[in-house]
Amino acid sequence: MIFPSYPNAPKGDDSYQASGTFVTLNVITIPSDLKDAQLKQNIRVYGSANKIPDDQKAKDINQILSIVTGKYAMSMTTNTEKDITFNDHPAHLIEAVDLAVSFATIAILLDDNTVGLIDVNISYNPPIGGVAASGRAWDIINSITVT
Fold first, then answer.
1. Omega before 127 cis (within 30°)?
2. Number of domains comprising the chain
3. Residue 100: which of 137, 141, 142, 132 has the closest Cα?
4. Is 33 helix (H, G, I), strand (E, B) or coil?
């Protein structure tokens, strides 16, 4: 599939394009056994569920989000992974950028039991004499609103 480059396609360059641009959206239910395992471990450490500190609860959420995003097993010029807040929701972002490709995956906590996953893959393919792309997969993710 061929799509116009996003978001910074040069004006008037008919041959500028990105090929293989994909955006995948998924909604995932957090497995109850994963949440149960975290809770049991926290009870062993803190003594009871109501004694689990907020920072540990945040770490547990970040761990779940990290598991959902997976890992890019490739060497890229820029490869970042971080916990962020996205549209007021806890999220985990992995972004990998190189001269010819841009990937980004973000897992967003939608509620106590559900994670939204957005995966964007841009493979730049300017024709001979075309202009190199300047947009990133993050630009597409950042244009999405989660409510």
1. no
2. 1
3. 132
4. helix
pLDDT reported for residue 96 = 87
Residues 57-93: pLDDT tens digits? 999 999 999 999 886 545 556 678 899 999 999 999 9
Would you say residue 89 lies in a domain?
A: yes
pLDDT tens sequence across 24-39: 899 999 999 999 999 9
Residue 8 included in any domain? yes
Residue 72: predicted pLDDT: 54
- CA angle 64–67–71, rounded 5-degree value: 150
Helix or strand or coil: residue 4?
coil
Residue 75 to residue 37: CA distance in whole angstroms: 33
Token pair recorded at residue 9: 């396609």
Q: What is the pLDDT of residue 3?
A: 45
Residue whose entry in the numeric block shows the structure tokens 């890992």:
71
Domain encompassing residue 85: 2-142
Where residue 135 falls among pLDDT bands split at 50, 70, 90?
Answer: confident
Could you tell me if residue 79 is left (phi over 0), alpha (psi between -120 and 50 degrees) or otherwise beta? Answer: beta
Residues ≥6 apart with Cβ < 8 Å to 45: 56
SS3 58: helix
For the record, the structure tokens of 119 come out as 């995966």
